Amino acid sequence: MKNHLQDTVTLHNGVRMPSFGLGVFKVQKGEELVEAVKAAIKHGYRSIDTAAIYGNEQGVGRGIREALQENGLRRADLFVTSKVWNADQGYESTIAAYEASLSKLGLESLDLYLVHWPVKGKFKETWLALETLYKEGRVKAIGVSNFHIHHLEELMQEATIKPMVNQVELHPRLSQKELLRFTQEQGIQLEAWSPLMQGELLDNETLREIGAKYGKSVAQVILRWDIQNGIVTIPKSTKEHRIIENAAIYDFELTSEDMALIDALNENRRVGPDPDNFDF
């Protein structure tokens, strides 16, 4: 089961998505961002996750173009995700938002486009726009982000295409086991944002002890736990040594006892907003 950094999961439409990628939330546009994207690709990452609201799609696009050239890769070798922001939700505005994201990224299409938050009264219409983009072959896969089970159920009552991915806050303090079970039953791939809880877990004693056993950092233990749970994970970092370290999780395997110890850290505690209660 140890696997490899470029391993993929197969989404329910047959598209293969890397199970490990780079997140760029809160990374300011500029050289640091471009270099982080280039470093990730140089060191074997094949998935980059951004969003319109991050305000950094242009830098991500530049990093991708430069990395492809420098590493002799093709666009098809990478998996690029972006998301439609809440203010742009609705049918026509979502189509326009997709165009705007492509233009900023300098790409002809995305591999995955997500509804960023379940905006009441809007997310179904937004989903219809994603279905249109998908049916027209303009995006390889479509999904949602920050959807609880009831949001998914509500969406699927009217959707003609089931979401392929649900990207949510997920880490050992918020293990989302019920949501994981539900998405697995439905054939929806769960993806973790903020897998390291924005650094809050890095001095956790249980995780440190587990890490010591394998000669691994707390971050590596958490990311390995994601992979062994069948969850796609996208840790954020701008430092090259950390980007390399985060991905060095394919030479060890957590025992079922260690997996259970990590599961037991769950407190249903979030660092981000609750999808049932956000106002943006």
From TrEMBL:
It holds the Pfam family Aldo_ket_red. InterPro entries: AKR, AKR5G, Aldo/ket_reductase_CS, NAD(P)_OxRdtase_dom_sf, NADP_OxRdtase_dom. The keyword Oxidoreductase applies. One of its GO terms (molecular function) is oxidoreductase activity, acting on the CH-OH group of donors, NAD or NADP as acceptor. The record marks K83 as: Lowers pKa of active site Tyr. Signal peptide: none annotated. Keywords: NADP, Oxidoreductase. Transmembrane segments: none annotated. It comes from the Bacteria. The active site is at Y54. Residues 29-267 form the NADP-dependent oxidoreductase domain. Gene3D superfamilies: NADP-dependent oxidoreductase domain. Substrate binds at H116. The keyword Transmembrane helix does not apply. Belongs to the aldo/keto reductase family. This is Aldo/keto reductase. It comes from Paenibacillus sacheonensis.
